[in-house]
Description:
Elements: H1 2-9, H2 11-40, H3 49-61, E1 65-70, E2 74-80, E3 83-93, E4 112-115, E5 118-121, H4 128-143, E6 150-158, E7 164-166, E8 169-171, H5 173-179, E9 188-199, E10 203-205, E11 208-211, E12 213-222, E13 226-227, H6 237-255, E14 264-272, E15 278-279, E16 282-291, H7 294-315, E17 318-327, E18 330-332, H8 334-348, E19 353-355, H9 365-371, E20 374-382, H10 406-423
Parallel strand pairs: 3-6, 3-9, 9-20, 10-19
Antiparallel strand pairs: 1-2, 2-6, 4-5, 7-8, 10-20, 11-18, 12-16, 12-17, 13-15, 14-16
Helix pairs in contact: 2-4, 2-10, 4-10, 6-7, 8-10
The site of one zinc ion (ZN) has 4 residues, from loops.
Amino acid sequence: MLSFLISAGSFGQSSLHAKIDKSADKIESKVIDWRRDFHKHPELGNQEFRTAKIVADHLRSLGMEVTENVAVTGVVGILRGGKPGPMVALRADMDALPVAERNDLPFRSVNTGTYNGQETGIMHACGHDSHVAILMGVAEVLAGMKNQLEGSVKFIFQPAEEGIYEPGVTTFGAKQMVEEGVMTDVDAIFGLHIWAAIEAGKIGYRSGPFMAGVDNLEVTITGTQAHGASPWSGVDPIVTSAQAILGLQTILSRNVNIAENPAVVTVGAIHGGIRHNIIPEKVEMIGTIRTFGEEQQTLVHQRIHEIITNIAKSAGAKADVKIGKLYPSTVNPPELTDKMLPSLNAAAGIGNVISMDPVTGSEDFSFFQKEKPGFFIFLGGMKKGGDPLTTPSHHTPDFYIDEAGFVLGVRAMSYFVVDYMGMKK
Ligand SMILES: [Zn+2]
Ligand SMILES: [Zn+2]
């Protein structure tokens, strides 16, 4: 009886869901074709010219107001609903990666290019091709029922999610779109990432900190050069760096509350010296820092500074520690997550919606979430029965996506829009 009352209470939403399901099924093969075309013709960040044109033409054909060249190659389309209500944004990222595809597919990538001066293959090795295709599908589904929409939908096709790291330039598509004012009139934003380690037909989410914030670490330790046979006549930056690296390990084991949230500090490269019997003057180290939430980020940064600076001091060396802030942590606000969970359950079926552990990868969707409430989910893209531990991971030449999960992506994103609008009445 209770369930009857609940479903009766959301009767309007149920009929909209049914309409969405019907259109999503109809459009599935088109979404797959779009994705294969994008997969065959991948483009690096801020160079998504072909992709952006196809997107803009599609949105225009659906009667939307379309703005191009937002944050270099981004496209924004607005669908005005038939009734007044909130502005709900949906986001897809469009960029590919400098990876040479190894999959033998009829729509295998044909593109190559130059990345930071190096010739390379280009591949949709993170699955952003599927995000673009799915959102084009959602655009068509919702445009077909615009008179029933109680609000407007902003379709954000974003460039350069993977970031632009060129000498002197570090930038991210979402950050730049926010700076250009894309979020000012938005009430809430939703986004998804196809995920190679979740079965197609399932959805992963997490309330609170979901994906890590990422920052770059750059350290120079300066000692005093000496003959390798008489180390006492100098200050050895190599031994000092070794102590500093070991010191950094105590941040995770002794400072961070790992029962609450994990964190990572990795030194990825260390350079110093030229010859077996010369103690060099300098050692340089670079690394990556992953944290969940601003409070933890502040703590980890502070400890990195204290540990390296004081270990260097104790050795008579000097340390220069620089931390470059890249993406904030992707955090799903618990209130919005609770509100939208029924939409996920309705789209995927209870049992196919998985609450996930935090992910130490990062997403620049976090920049949108810093502006307005935003909910980010993972859409299953692994073949049914696949092994998440051995399935090729994102950013690798063998990365592969099962397209059977796309239609669920179209339905979930469309449900978010009509359900959010329904709640705001
Ligand atoms: Zn990626
Ligand atoms: Zn990605």
